[in-house]
C-alpha cells in the first residue's frame, strides 16, 4: 500500500462522514415536514382526506432513512479506524525498511525480519478488511437510495392530493415540494458517497 | 547515530545521539539504553523522525525481542512520538510513563505495548538483574515529569534538567563547565516554570550519589561538574516569561 493511497482513503472516508451527516439533517427535515403536513391535513379535514395517509408514509420514510444512516455511520467509523491502523502499519513498514538499510552490519540486524514480516502481514489483512467493508458500505448506501426514490413518488402523489385541498392547496404543495427537494438532496449526497468509495475501489 | 558506553558493569548504559542525518530543524536529543543480559530499557527513545536511526543503532547492542521496556520522562514529541512505531516493532514491551499522560501518549499509538502508569510519587523499573528508581521531577518542565536514577551505576538520567542547545556534533561530556553555562541558561529559565519545583528537585537529587548526570539534550556532566550544575541551577531564577 502506498502512502498516497492511504491519504486518498482518509479523504474518501472523511467525505463519506460529511455527506452522511448532511443526509441525516435532510432526513430530520423530512420528518419535520411530515409533522407539519399532518397538522395541515388535520385542519383541512375532508378536503385533505387523501393527504393524511401520505403524511404517515413520509414520516416512515424519514425514520427509515435516519435508521439506515445511523447504521451506515457505524460502518464509516469502522472504515476510519481501519484507515488509521493501515496508515500506521504502512508507515511502520516504511520505517522498518529504513532501519534495515541503516542497520547493515549491526550484530542483531536480522532480528527485525520477524517484526517487518508481521507488520506487512497485518497491513495486508487490514487492507483486505477495508475492501470488504467498502463493498458492504456500498450495498448499505444503495439501501438508502430506496426510501429516497419512494419519497419522490410520494411527493408526486402529494401534489395530486394537494390539488384537491381547496384553500390548503399552497400549504400542502409546499410540503410536497419540500419532500421532493429533500429526497433529491439525499439522492445526490448518497451518490457522492458511492463515488468516493468507488474511487478507492478503482485505486486497488 | 553516535553510540557512547557510559557504564560497564554487570550491565551497560549506552548513550545514543548526535545523529548526523537528523533533519536540520528538529532538536537534537540524547537517548539512553540500559542493557542487561537479556533485557533492554530505552529511556526517552525519541521522536518519530529519529526512529529508524535509533533502532538501527540499538540493533548493534540488542535484538528487537529483548527490548522489553521503554520509559518516557514526559509527553513531548521529541521524547516519545516514535511510540506508534515501537508499538508495531516490539511484541512484548512495556511503556513506563506518567499516569497523568496516559490518555495523551496513547494518541501516538499504543495497542501492543503495555502502558505501565507511574504514580506521582514515582516507583521502580525492575529489569530482573537490576532495579532502577523513577524519581519525580514534576514541572521540570512538564507537569508530570520523571527522571531515572541507577544507584549501582550512579547515573541520573535527568530529562530536560541539565539540557543545553548546542551545535551539531558537539562532545558528549561537558569539558569546561564555566563555558557551558551560557548554553544552558535560556533553556532552563524559559522551559522550567517553577522555582519551587526546582528547589524540591535539588533537595531530592542532592541526597543521591551521582557520577553522571545525563540530560536529554546537550552534554552529560560527570564528577565534580554534577555538583557544579546543581549549585548553578539552584541559584538560577526560572519561569522568566511572566
UniProtKB/TrEMBL annotation, chain A:
Protein name: Chemotaxis protein
Organism (species): Methylomonas fluvii
Automatic annotation (TrEMBL), chain B:
SMART domains from the UniProt entry: Lactamase_B
Metallo-beta-lactamase domain: residues covered: 28-217
Recorded superkingdom: Bacteria
SUPFAM superfamilies: Metallo-hydrolase/oxidoreductase (SSF56281)
Name of one Pfam family that matches: ODP
First and last residue of the signal peptide: none
Name used for this protein in its record: MBL fold metallo-hydrolase
